[in-house]
Amino acid sequence: MARFRFRLEQVLDHRTRREDLMKQELARAMAAVALQQEKAVTAERAVESALAELRSLMDGSVELDRLRAGHDALTLMRARAAHERATVENLAVVADERRADLVRASQEREALTQLRATALERHRVEGLRLEGIELDELAMRRATRRPGVAA
Description:
Structural class: mainly alpha
Strand content: under 5%
Helix content: over 70%
Number of helices: 2
């Protein structure tokens, strides 16, 4: 019987490599989201700390310039925290896109894998059919060679 050869094997290999690449890209995107979330949490803590410091300044007598400086610092920290949260959201969108890309790549590879399995099964069935034909021919030849045996 002839050796099985899937004619789309190179395409399947390419799709498998592409799927692996998509997995790596998703992992990088998720790592970027996690890192950015840490930055956002740090920025939120800085806002809380600056707010607590500003409140403690207002408890006693304080110079107006120092109060304004504390307020300006708080405003800047709030803006930074908002920016960090927005960046987390943007990176999460990118990670979702990478996840969708991976799903598509997996589906494309799986379709070819199933096609290969179907082709392999057809090849196996055809091999069994040819083997059966050969056995039938062999049995017919043996039956016709024996003297005194009716065919």
